[in-house]
Amino acid sequence: MKITFVKKIKADGSACKKCAEISQRLEDSGQINQIDEVLIADESNPLSPGMVLADRLKVERAPFFVVNHDDGKEDVYTVYFKFVKEVLNQKTEAVDENKEILDQNSDLDFL
Fold first, then answer.
1. Which residues have a Cβ under 8 Å from the Cβ of 103 and sit 6 or more positions away?
2. DSSP alpha helices (H): ranges in 31-78?
3. How many CB atoms lie within 10 A of CB 13?
4. Does residue 95 have a pLDDT over 90?
5. Which domain range does residue 53 map to?
6. CB neighbour class for 18 (10 Å; exposed up to 12, middle 13-18, buried from 19)
7. Is there a domain that residue 111 lies in?
8. Would residue 15 count as lying in a domain?
9. pLDDT given at position 110
10. What pLDDT, in 10s, does the model give residues 67-92?
11. How many CA atoms lie less than 13 Å away from 13 in the CB half-sphere?
12. CA angle, 69 as apex, 95 and 17 as ends, to 5°?
């Protein structure tokens, strides 16, 4: 299995806030050691490796993770906590995963 983490650099050269947050979580938890490759999706360069991958996979938000399985299957995760739970097999809190989904989808709200 190969895990790729894609984070974004905005067109003005600044770091994506969510990408920086997830990078810090990966570092603080030691999960970064399970990431095989980190790609940058540079908004000012559509040919940057992360932008090319995002385009190929039709991913429109960063950060995201791509998991290439040994059997050739490829999974994409745009929700960090879901990635941690399903791929890294670590316990997460449902409230954290739900909050991240809501943060990424401003048109959603709790019932």
1. 18
2. 49-57
3. 9
4. no
5. 2-104
6. middle
7. no
8. yes
9. 42
10. 999 999 999 999 998 999 999 987 75
11. 0
12. 40
Domain holding 60: CATH number? 3.40.30
Residue 10: predicted pLDDT? 94
* Token representation of residue 2: 């190969």
Lowest average pLDDT, out of 19-23, 30-34, 77-81, 95-99, goes to 95-99
Say what the pLDDT of residue 100 is.
Answer: 55
Task: Please give the model's pTM, rounded to 2 decimal places.
Answer: 0.81
In this structure, is residue 96 part of a structural domain? Answer: yes
What is the domain count for the chain?
A: 1
Q: How far is CA 96 from CA 72, 82, 83, 91, 99, in A?
A: 30, 10, 12, 11, 5
Q: Residue 39 domain-assigned?
A: yes
